[in-house]
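=== Structure Prediction Worksheet ===
Name of assembly: unnamed complex
Input type: mixed (protein and possibly other molecules)
Chain count: two
Listed entries:
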Amino acid sequence: MGRLARREALECYLFISLAVAGFLIFQAGPIGVSAFLSLTNSELVGTPAWVGLRNYSAMLHDPLFWQSLKVTVTYAVVAVPLGLALSLLVALLMNQNVRGISVFRTVYYLPSVISGVAVAVLWRWILNPEFGILNLLLGYLRIDGPNWLLDRQWALPSLILMSLWGIGGSMMIYLAGLQGIPTHLYEAVEIDGGGMWDKFAHVTIPMISPVVFFNLVTGIIWTFQEFTRVYVMTQGGPSNATLFYGLYLYRNAFRYFQMGYASALAWVLLLIILAMTLMLFRTSQLWVYYEGSVEKA
Amino acid sequence: MSVSMLPATWRLGRSRSRLLLRIVVYLALISGGIVIMIPFFWMISTSLKKQWDVYAFPPVWIPNPPQWQNYAQALTVYPFHLYFLNTLRITVLTCLGTTLSSSLAAYGFARLRAPGRDVIFMVLLSTMMLPYAVTMVPLFMLFNSLHWVNTFLPLIVPHFFGNVFYIFLLRQFFLTIPTELEQAARIDGCSSLMIYRRIILPLSVPALATVAIFQFMDSWNDFLGPLIYLSDEAKRTVALALAYFQGSAKIGPQMHLMMAVAFVVLIPELLLFFFAQRLFIQGIVFTGVKG
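=== Predicted Assembly ===
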């Protein structure tokens, strides 16, 4: 290697050194420690003892673990596809060359940008059975609204309903994807005498499928990390009906200080996410269409 | 163009169904938009009501006169000015830290050749999917042993070591900058650091701003971090304070005050969104289409 090349390499390493150090200190190191902790009975204070795979086998007999898994999977299976379908629908409407699209875009996108405790607090008030606006409006339609977050049957559907408010993010991604579809494809369908449905089924859907796939994967990963909303709105209740995986893990770590068990939960979470992502990627060949060339955003 | 070749009657029927479609599209978009705005209306309306009007039936939709003093009252029940200051400090520092450190690494990955560089980049990228839950417990133990618990440091310092997602985003942006400028500068004897400072950064203001905005939203809304690390009442962030406010005995179920605080917490985010919407859109579109 020449003097200049060596100098360039050295500079490169210097430029990326902070990021690499950060990776080692805040990612790789903790991952290793977490794996180790999951095999101990660590409780934050005192020296942890080696327990082998006992944390993992304890999970099998832990009803709350299964409950949190059930809640999370149910939510992922219902809320994620529902949100994907609705945001695609809105994006399709908005892509119809509408006037004032920037106003619509702003309005629909806005709720997905803001998040956190303020939004959770607001929705808790919206969903208040007696004085919340949702049941007040339903009352005008002579519908006796349910107790929403306070009802075991309705608590999870309430959160799913709330999540639809924030579909603007995936809508924007769809919209960008839709606008990237070359018009000559639609013209080709027209020449072949195809109507709107043919355009949708044979051009839009195949061309947009990679974006659907991206939104699906990120949506599911995100569901498994759901925390702030449930912590603020339901605390996992009533009777654990909204005990999301992330919340249960947090409780074990920072309420019961079962660091060993919490680490084991985290590792199972990691494995679940890995397995699901791999599975989605494998099956994606069946339903995701990738164009040969990389197209411009 | 193809339409003009069709028989006239056909065209008419077609344009009529087009018109109908337009009407349906507008109706759907407008009614959807109204539904989306209802929560905001409800928040602001509640925040301006007299306490007993909050629970009145039939409901008071538009409080008359609006109770502006609710805001003053809500923000002084607890020292919210302190919480805003805390949050602002954390947010500004994390924005600075992550923009600086991520852009440094991104420049290295985008422009400087070194053995193993691309392998390192792939390894870093692979952590993008890592759930925070896996590192949460060991990091807490690390910061605990450094006596950083109950300080802002655990919420700030990690952001000075770059963020994979932002590094990726900036690297892609840097790759679009033509290399001629850099080569000219190099011939004039500029070092890589100078090129980074004098050429790359000034040309990348929109991308850097996108990163800063994303980080701002992230830190401003962060709840889990402050919940784990901040136990002192005086050290709370607005998100944490709002959550405690909800279950606080000091105010009880006073929804008008809750909503006033929630709205004030949202204001910086709303302002940022309205003034920098383009950057938000670029950022999110970039994530989805290229990511």
